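assembly run, all chains below
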Amino acid sequence: MLTDKIIVAENLTKKFGDFTAVDNVSFTVNRGEIFGFLGANGAGKTTAMRMLCGLSKPTSGKGWVAGFDIWKQSEKVKKNIGYMSQKFSLYKDLKVWENIRLFAGIYGMKDKEIAVKADEMLNRLEFINERNTLVKQLPLGWKQKLAFSIAIFHEPQIVFLDEPTGGVDPTTRRQFWELIYHASGQGITVFVTTHYMDEAEYCNRVSIMVDGRIDALDTPAKLKQQFGVLNMDEVFQQLARHAKRSG
Amino acid sequence: MNQFLSFVKKEFRHIFRDKRTMLILLGMPIAQIILFGFAITTEVQNIRVAVLDSSKDISTQRIIDRIDASKYFNIAQTIHNYDEVDKVFQCGDADLVIVFEERFNENLIHTGKAQIQLIADATDPNTATTEINYITSIINSVQLELMGTNFVPIQIIPEIRMLYNPQMKSAYNFVPGVMGLILMLVCSMMTSISIVREKEMGTMEILLVSPMRPIYIVLSKVMPYFLLSCVNLTTILLLSVFVLGVPVAGSLFWLILVSFVFIVVSLSLGMLISTLAVNQVAAMLMSGMVLMMPVLLLSGMIFPIENMPQILQWLSNIIPARWYISAIRKLMIEGTAITFVLKELAILLFMAFFFITVSLKKFKIRLQ
Amino acid sequence: MVLKYLIEKEFKQIRRNSFLPRLILIFPCLIMLVAPWIVNLEVKDIGLNVIDHDHSTYSGKLIQKIGSSGYFRITDLSGSYAEAMQSIQSNESDIILEIKLGFESDLLKEGSTQVLIAANAVNGTKGGLGSNYLAQIINEYSTEIRENFQPLPNTAIPVIDVVPQNRFNPHLDYKVFIVPAQMVLLLTILCGFLPALNIVGEKETGTIEQINVTPVVKFTFIIAKLIPYWIIGFVVLSLCFVIAALVYGIVPTGSLLTVYLFAGLFVLSYSGIGLVVSNYSGTMQQAMFVMFFFTIILILMSGMFTPVNNMPQWAQIVTIFNPLKYFIQVMHLVYLKGSGVWALCSQFIALLGFAVFFNTWAILSYRKKA
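ok done. output:
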C-alpha cells in the first residue's frame, strides 16, 4: 500500500477528563520527509505522537499510518514503525547487543540476520567495543544514539522520535541529526518532536503546536517568510505568546 | 508551628492520593479480624467418618447412631473390607475410619470385652488427636449406658473449666496478633517506603534545605502514619468487641497506652530502615524480611513461642511484636492488672528509646 | 519465534538482578530449614499447676502418673487456687488441677469423686487439647483402680477397648504436616510476588513503552512473563524436595511426578494472579500491598494451618475459589497419603480452571494502549 501521504491525521482529539491534550488536529506527512513536530512542553506533541503509534486511543478523529487505520489496525501500524520515547526506555540491565537482539527478535528477524546487521550497525556507530556493555553504564548521548538505531533496526517505513536530543550537548545533537539524515537517506520517513528551534531548521516541514492545536504548518523557509522573521525561534515566540498553558 | 502543620498536610495529601493502597490499609484489619474471628477456627467440626462394621449388631448400630448424632461427626460412608481403608483416605473422602471387630456385641456380652479400632488421618496431628478424643468419649458414654446402670464403682469425674475463653473461640488467641501485625505493617513498612521514595525522587533534599529543623521534617512524615495506626487500632478494638464478642477484660487505658508505645517503636523502626535502604524495593524487601516474616513467625502471634527450639526463642526476644502481643493478651483477654505487664512495657519502652536514638543519629549523619 | 527472544530477556534480567537469584535460592532453603521448627502447633510440655488439698496416697499416685505421661511439666504445687491463678497470669503454667480435700475417702467410700481442671483457653488448641489429655489420664487412672478393686467375675463390666491408630503420621509429628505446606507457601510467595512486581516494574522504568510500540502479541508477552516463574517454581520445588528428604526424612509416599504436575498448574494460576495485579497497579508499592492483602487471606483460608472442614459454611463456599486450597489438598494427599492421580480429578480440574482463567485475564488486562 504505497501512498504518498504516509501519515494522515483527521481531527484527532484526546481528552483526559476535562483536559483536552490534543484538540482537533489534522495534518499529513509525505513519504520520505523529515517532519518536525514543534511545541512547548505540554502543548500536546507527545500525546499526538502516542496516538499515531498506537500507544494511546484517540478520543475522536481518524488517523492512518503507513496506510493502516490507527483505530482498527494499530498492531499493523506497529509493524511498520519505529519509536523512540522521550524517557529512555531500553532495558538498562541488558547489554547493548542484547537489547538489539531482543527488539530485532520481536520484529521477527532471524538470528543470523540480526548478528550480521548488528555488527554492521555497531561498527558504523563506532560502538563495537561497547557491544557487551550494560546499557545503564553508557553515557546519555550514547544511550540515545543506541535507542535511535534500535528504533530503525528493523527498517520501518516511519520512525517516531519523541524529543530525541533532550539533555545532550550540542556536539552529540549534531551527530544525532547526522544519524537522522542517514536514515532519511535510506527512505525512512522521520517524524520528530522537539522544542529546540534550531533543529526545526533541519526539517523538511514543521508543524507548531500551541495548546493542543496546530497553529502553523509549512516548510521552515515559508514559515519565516509568512511571519516576516529571520529564524524559527522568532516564529515560535510569536505563536507561543498567545499560549494559555505554561510550559 | 504553622510550617509544621503545612508539612503534615502535604504528607496527608500524598498518602490519600493512592486510593488503592489506602483502601488496603484500612480494609486489611477488617478482613483479618473477620477471617480470624469467623473462618479460622481450630475447633474441629464436620469430621467425615467412614465405618467398617462387620458385625452389624445392636451395639455397633447404637455407637454409629450416637456418633452420627454428634455435632462434630458425620458418617460419610460405609466400607466393607479393611483394604478399603487406605483408599478412603487417599481419595480424601474421610478423616477417620471406625473399625468394629467381628461379632462385636457377642464378644461384649460373653467375654466382657470388645474392640473398636479408630484409624485417624494423622497428617494434621492436632486434628487427629482431637477427633480421637471426642470419639473416645462418645464411645465411653455408650459403654456406660450398656452397663445398664449409671453407677460405676470407681470414678473420678473431672470438672473442666476453660478460663478467659469459655467458648474456645480462636479469635481470643488471634486478635492481639492481628493488632501487632497491622500496626507493624502500617507504621514500619509504610513509613520506611514513603521516606525512601522521597529520597529516591530527590524531594527530600528540598525539604532538608528548608528552614525547618530536621526533627520536624521527620515528625511530619511520621504523623499521618501515626494517625492511620490509631484509626486501625480503633477499628480492630471496635470490631473485636462488637463483632467478635471478644471483650476488653482489663484496663482500656493501659491497653491504649501500651499500644502507643508499640506504635512509637514501629515508627522509629520504619525511620531506621528508611535511613538504611537505598531504594524503594530495598525498603520493601527489608521491611518484608526483617519485619513482617519475624512478626508472622516468631512473635507468638499464631505459633507458640514455647514450642520453638531454644535458639529461636532467644531470637524472638528481640522482636518488639512479641512483647506487644504478650502484653495485649494479658491486658485485653486475661484482664490481668498492669503489674503483670510491667516487664513487657519496660522492654517496649527501652526499644522505643533505642530505635529513636539510633535512627536520629543516622539521620543526622546523613545530613552532614 | 518472538517468544524465544522475550523469555531470553526475562532470564537475563533475573540473572543480572543483584538480589533475585539469591532470593530464589536462599529464601526457600532458609524457610525450609527454619520454619518447620517455628510453625509448630504441637501441644506438648504443658505447664501444669497442681493444688493438692488431699495429700493422700491416691492423689499422690495420680500426680505421679500425670507427671510421667510426657505431656505435662508440673511447674508448681500451689497451696491455693488464687496462688495457682497467679502462675497462670504470669504465663508460668497453662492448666490448674485442683484435688479437693477428701479426694481419697470419697473415691473409696462413695466410689466417686471430683477434680477441677482449669485451663488457660486464650490459645484454644492448647487449652482444649491439654485439658483433654489430662481428663484422659485421669480416666485411665480410675480404670486402673477399678480393675484392681473388682476382680470378681460376676460383676465384670463390659469394656469397649478403643484402639486408636494414627495413620500416615504415627508419631504425630507436626513437621510431617507442615513441611509439604511450607512448599506450597514458598511457591505462593515467590511465584506470586515476583510476577506481581514485574510488569509494574517495567511500567515504572518505562521499558514497557518500548515493548508496547512493537507489534508483539499480548498473548506472547504474557506467556514470556509466565514461563520463567514456572521454571523457577520447579527449581524451588526440587530444592524443597531435597531438603525435606535430607533434613526431615520426609519423602513423598505418592508419585513425585504427580506433585510436579499439580505444582506446575498451581504456579501457572498463582503467577497469573500476580500478573493481573501487576497489570492493574500503577506502582510497585501498590502491587505489593494488594498481593500481600490477598495472599494472607488465601493462605489463611487454604487449610494450611486449620482444616477447611472447621470453617463455617459461608467460608467453605469462599474457599471453592481458592487455588491454594486445592494444591494443599494435593500435597497432603500425594505427599503424605500416597494418592494416585485418579483420586485428584476435582483438584486437577479446579487448578486447570484457575490457570486458564487468571492467565486469560492477565492477557486481557494487559493494555498496550492507554
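The two ends of chain A are 39 Å apart (CA to CA).

The CA atoms of residues 84 and 147 of chain A lie 6 Å apart.

not gonna interpret more than that til we talk
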